[in-house]
Write a structure and sequence with these properties.
It is a single chain. By secondary structure, this protein is of the alpha+beta class. The protein has 17 helices and 15 strands. It has a seven-stranded antiparallel beta sheet, with helices on both faces. The chain has a six-stranded antiparallel beta sheet with strand order 1-6-5-4-7-8, sandwiched between helices. A hairpin with an 8-residue loop joins β4 and β5. The longest helix has 22 residues. The chain is globular and about 60 Å long.
Length: 508
């Protein structure tokens, strides 16, 4: 089914704003009915994680540095594991709202603050933690034991002997609980699954980099094997991505362990229990079913064509590495939030340059080979940046230059493209993460739809961190799909929007 790309087009076109036919026009959401954002296991053995929030390295260094696997052992201990999990999706602040009571916000942005992404871990023996399959509970900062023993061989087999997973002492698995997000966003939730997973993974990659541990995003795996290992009810929850972390010379057991059903008791995954069949269809259509299919899926990433020659190039001026803001990654993650208002004041040219450069150096992923290539193009509407003409722009990542596509005042247009909201109109810069979806699907099949969404949101997560490191605020927004493509055409002809963020100054 992965090669029948009509499934991706059916889902993508059907979930476009404003008239996607898979979206209910009369749907409403009352935050008072917000689902419980935690998966709660009953009667299960757990290990409380120690939490050390002390600073390590600069946020900009952490998001731009790629630590590759080498020959030296790099095995996280319990304290490292706690920091990786906390700074990926732990609770960083609690705000009381009159109607909702206390709302616990986490380390990474999430659409609607609905927190539908769960993290599991599969590990060999780590200092302070026995080999096993665990679930991370962010509310109480603990890991809960689902299976005792070393099950890494299951993931090695599921990924068709992926080299990073073979040598990883720790593998994180990210999953999506559908109905926690469909309650507000309906069928479009499957896009949000990768958006919200990607912003978490951006944090995971950054905190792993800060600890000088190799980490890589893996999408090439047999879905059913991973879901079975986690004992997921796949009508309600599915795995989305794997991230192996660290390096060990000690091989996992050669024999593939038996995976009996666990039938562990949990509280209801959501108090909203409508199963969206269109989400089930696109997920099944983009699933890989065998090691052979995984091998066929992997390969050199398709190169997204950029119109040439470049006109009106503008060289960017990012902070040099020895002069970048010193704000630590940990401090930035704890401070980070999603802006609710912007002041219309300009950000500096160097601030924008720094965000673009340090956020886009590369994402380590099995679908982005060689390292540094990308499925995503960045289109910008610049409203207020010191030293830059207002207008629409394209970012040439390999040359680190901006190209002015059209000069003019486009605040009103930006607001319209961002679903008729004030934030894109008031912000300094609106950034649209776009791809040639036809080319991606031809290269990767329906799995490519997951890949493009995920890479865009990982980049968006890096934008959050790079911006907050410079006291620039950010928010992620949704958009009118075809209107964005039309506005940036002919340059963006046939490209599809995967993600959107707005940068700006905080309104005092």
């Amino acid at each position: 089914m992965n090669n029948d790309i009509d499934a991706s087009w059916h889902y993508h076109n059907g979930t476009k704003h404003p008239h996607g036919r898979l979206m209910g026009k009369l749907h409403t959401y009352d935050p008072a009915f917000r689902p419980n954002p935690y998966k709660v296991y009953k009667d299960i053995q757990s290990t409380v994680l120690p939490l050390d929030k002390s600073p390590s390295t600069s946020a900009l260094i952490a998001i731009s540095r790629n630590i590759e696997q080498e020959v030296e052992q790099i095995v996280p201990d319990l304290n490292d594991l706690a920091r990786i999990l906390y700074f990926s999706c732990g609770i960083t602040k609690t705000i009381n709202y009159s109607r909702l009571g206390d709302v616990e916000f986490r380390a990474a942005a999430c659409t609607g603050a609905l927190y539908h992404i769960e993290i599991y871990l599969v590990c060999g023996n780590l200092p302070g933690l026995d080999a096993g399959v665990y679930h991370f509970d962010p509310k109480y900062m603990k890991v809960e034991l689902l299976r005792k023993g070393d099950y890494r061989r299951v993931l090695i087999n599921a990924s068709s002997n992926n080299i990073e997973i073979q040598h990883a002492p720790l593998i994180l698995i990210y999953s999506d609980v559908f109905t926690r997000n469909t309650i507000k966003y309906q069928t479009r939730e499957y896009r949000h699954a990768f958006w919200d997973c990607g912003t978490i993974i951006a944090n995971t990659l950054a905190i792993s980099s800060a600890h000088k541990m190799p980490a890589k995003v893996i999408l090439g795996y047999v879905d059913d094997l991973v879901n079975s290992l986690l004992d997921l009810n796949t009508e309600k929850e599915v795995s989305l991505a794997l991230v192996p972390i660290g390096f060990t010379k000690e091989a996992a057991a050669q024999e593939i362990p038996v995976i009996p059903s666990l039938n562990l008791k949990t509280e209801p995954l959501s108090n909203y229990d409508f199963d969206d069949q269109e989400i089930q269809k696109i997920h099944q259509a983009s699933s890989l079913t065998s090691g052979r299919e995984v091998k066929e899926w992997l390969g050199v990433s398709p190169k997204i064509k950029i119109p040439s020659p470049m006109e009106n190039p503008i060289s960017l001026d990012p902070f040099k590495e020895n002069k970048i803001p010193s704000a630590s990654l940990e401090r930035i993650i704890i401070r980070r939030g999603s802006a609710r208002e912007f002041s219309r004041e300009p950000i500096s040219f160097q601030q924008l340059s720094t965000v673009l450069y340090y956020s886009t150096i590369g994402v380590s992923a099995d679908f982005l080979e060689p390292y540094g290539c990308s499925l995503i193009n960045l289109y910008l509407i610049i409203n207020a940046v010191d030293g830059l003409q207002s207008g629409s722009y394209f970012y040439h990542r390999e040359q680190n230059k901006l190209e002015l596509l059209k000069g003019g005042e486009f605040r009103q247009t930006a607001g319209h493209l961002g679903l008729d909201q004030d934030l894109p109109a008031d912000g300094s810069v609106a950034v649209f993460f776009m791809t040639d979806l036809e080319k991606v699907l031809k290269g990767f099949g329906n799995r490519g739809y997951r890949a493009a969404q995920l890479e865009a949101s990982i980049l968006g997560g890096k934008f959050y961190l790079a911006s907050y490191a410079q006291n620039v605020r950010v928010t992620g927004l949704t958009f009118y799909d075809d209107a964005v493509t039309e506005f940036f055409s002919p340059h963006a002809k046939d490209k599809s929007v995967m993600f959107m963020v707005v940068l700006g100054k905080k309104k005092s």
